[in-house]
Design goal:
- The chain has helices at residues 15-19, 42-54, 65-99; strands spanning 2-5, 24-26, 32-34, 60-63.
- By secondary structure, it is α+β, with helices and mostly antiparallel strands.
- It folds into two domains: 1-63, 2-Layer Sandwich (Alpha-Beta Plaits), CATH 3.30.70; 65-100.
- A two-stranded antiparallel sheet has the order 1-4.
- Bound molecules: iron/sulfur cluster.
Length: 100
Amino acid sequence: MKFKVDKDVCIGCGACASICDEVFEIKDDGYAEAIDKEITDDEVKENAISAMEGCPTGAIREVKDEDKVKDKKEDKVKDKKEDKVKDKKEEKIKDKNEEK
Ligand code: SF4
């Protein structure tokens, strides 16, 4: 069992971390993040589920196996987009340097 926090929905209230700090943590950006690790301990699972159910914005969801495949695809698309932006920035810098 794994969890994921949607940072676009999280308001950083800290409720999840106070209910289950083994799984949820408030990061420097002020939003919660779930550990990227399979949770096997039953008590921790129960606490994490309580935290998910208690989240006031519904930002926490359980990651299912099919989600993991989807998440990997989304990560790849995101990486490609970031690479394109990086390439364009590098091209601009190169062009500017050549102009000089
Ligand atoms: S309980 Fe929900 S809204 Fe509050 S910090 Fe956790 S994920 Fe964010």
